[in-house]
Amino acid sequence: MDWLDKLIADELKPYNLILNALDDRKNDEGLILISQKHLGEFTNIHPTTVGKKLKVLSELGSVEQVAPGKYKLLHNDKEHTPHYYIRMLIDLNIAGLVSLGDFVTQREIFGLEKPMLHRIDEYVRLVMMKLKAELE
């Protein structure tokens, strides 16, 4: 993991904690019976934040909510988390292939809806601010 991936991973730690907690508790069919409250207790993340992170993970194809308190872990890898999209957007931006805020091009590349692209764009800007602060 290079320094940029580490910076991104540090920023996205709640997503990884949630995915790992779900992975540790899944049955043979990949199903997990757990409330957001209990998931929050296991990860030390507020239940409201757990719900928001689960929604993002669901939109990116990592997790599916089968029923209230019942989830299916579909993927526990970077390619199905914000980390992948943030790193790709940074790399494409550095290469001059896409601009931050160019949601039309980003949608063509990533196939994500505009609200998710806004979220990814915000994370990229946050990571870049932190990177700038570290370099000063």
How would you name the oligomeric state of the polypeptide chains in this document?
A: single chain
- Mind summarizing the main beta sheet? 3 strands, antiparallel
Find the count of extended strands (DSSP E, 2+ residues). 3
As laid out across the biggest beta sheet, the strand order is 1-3-2
Number of structurally distinct domains: 2
What is the CATH homologous superfamily assignment of the largest domain? Answer: Winged helix-like DNA-binding domain superfamily/Winged helix DNA-binding domain
- Kindly provide the name of the CATH class of the largest domain: Mainly Alpha
User: Which CATH architecture of the largest domain would you pick?
Assistant: Orthogonal Bundle
Helix content: 55-70%
Radius of gyration: 16 Å
Would you tell me which CATH topology of the largest domain applies? Answer: Arc Repressor Mutant, subunit A
User: Globular, elongated, flat, extended or rod-shaped: what is the shape?
Assistant: globular
Strand content: 5-15%
- State mean pLDDT (0 to 100 scale): 91
The secondary-structure class comes to mainly alpha
Query: How would you spell out the order of helices and strands?
Result: HHEHHEEHHH
Tally of alpha and pi helices: 7
Distance between the termini: 22 Å
> What are the low-pLDDT stretches, counting only 5+ consecutive residues below 50?
none
Concise summary:
This protein is 63% helix and 9% strand. The chain has helices at 3-11, 13-25, 36-43, 47-59, 82-94, 103-110, 114-135; strands at 31-33, 63-67, 70-73.
